Amino acid sequence: MIKVGNKTIGIDEPCFFIAEAGVNHNGDMKLAKKLIDEAKNAGADAVKFQTFKTELIVTESAKTADYARRKTGTESQKELLKKLELSKEDHIELQKYANKRGIMFFSTPHSDEWSVDLLNELKVPLFKIGSGDLDNLPFLKYVARAKKPMIISTGMATLDEIKEAVQTIRGELNEQIVVLHCTTSYPCDIKDSNLRMMNTIREECSVLVGYSDHTTDVITPSIAHALGAVVVEKHFTLDRNLPGPDHQASAEPSELKEAISLLRKTELLLGSPMKELTEAELKIREIARKSIVARTDIQKGQDITKDMLAIKRPGTGLRPKMLGSVVGKKATRAIKKDEMLQKTDFQ
């Protein structure tokens, strides 16, 4: 189990749901706060943004990905990211607003120590590492040294790269790790989701696992949790038609709310590995189960034979499994047809 603020992440705990605002604020603080509002209204455990200083994470010549270029028309990755950057003051304001709304705030640091140091200064309760930094081992070491829980995404990674990342974090004496299976495509086709990969990661790396959901389906988080995800994150936006690279692959507020609602229903459906009778079952059991009854009138002192007995509802008398111990005994009283037998009725 891993403690994150007032939440606990673990196999027997409620699934920790992260509403991934990411860069869907478009650099607009009013939009960012509305995203916090919608994450809270949907029932998410936390809302997550992205923390970076553009000049520290991308070169002048870096091109945007095809999906981002199609949506934004921007060729330069640096130009695109600069518009989506949040300042230190922005982070402080958003964290205060999230605290006021009663939802956990944190962010993904990108590639550089500046972003990690800023989030440490803000005392965020955990770090989320994006798929793009999974093989950035010096960065993973730097983050791990903060000794905070780390949730790492594994899009575009081989199993060996995932193992190496986990070993790197553990090498800094940090065992608070959740590994999220992820398919890096925006949006992710459900045929590419491959949720069973979570089981492989759990077995091969001995870690808690989860899922970073890039599909547009509301049922995906529920299925992921049913397969063992203790953390699920899902990108969301106020409107998929807004300009920006990630809106089209994100859930809208009503979809986010439905996804979380289905997840919580799934938790109730999964229940516990222990077999315990419910209150409803205890009431119905007496009606639906059966007891040993007299098939005919039985006289006092008469030897009881099998053909004198029947098994009928309700189940408030002797259990049917006692039939063998009744046959061959003498009746200690007169028993009327259809009357239930009690332990004192024979010897």
Question: Can you describe what's shown?
Answer:
The protein is of the alpha/beta class and 347 residues long. It has two domains: 12-270, Aldolase class I (TIM Barrel, Alpha-Beta Barrel), CATH 3.20.20.70; 279-345, Antifreeze-like/N-acetylneuraminic acid synthase C-terminal domain (Type Iii Antifreeze Protein Isoform Hplc 12, Alpha-Beta Complex). It is 35% helix and 16% strand. It is built from 13 helices and twelve strands. The strands form three sheets. The chain has an eight-stranded parallel β-sheet. Strands 1-2 form a two-stranded antiparallel ribbon. Strand 3 (16-22), helix 1 and strand 4 (46-51) form a beta-alpha-beta unit. Helix 1 runs parallel beside helix 5. The radius of gyration is 30 Å and the shape is elongated. It starts with a strand and ends in a 21-residue tail after the last helix.
Beta percentage is 15-25%
CATH class of the largest domain: Alpha Beta
For the secondary structure, the number of strands is: 12
Radius of gyration: 30 Å
Query: What is the average of the pLDDT values?
Result: 95
Q: Any low-confidence stretches, pLDDT <50, length ≥5?
A: none
What is the CA-CA span between the terminal residues? 57 Å
Structural class: alpha/beta
**Percent of residues in helical segments?**
25-40%
Write down the CATH topology of the largest domain.
TIM Barrel
Number of helices: 13
The CATH superfamily of the largest domain is identified as Aldolase class I
State the shape. Answer: elongated
In sequence order, what are the helices and strands, one letter per element?
EEEHEHHHHEHEHEHEHEHEHHEEH
Q: How would you write the strand order of the largest sheet?
A: 5-4-3-10-9-8-7-6
| Quaternary state of the chains | single chain
- Domain module count: 2
**CATH architecture descriptor of the largest domain:** Alpha-Beta Barrel
Main beta-sheet annotation: 8 strands, parallel
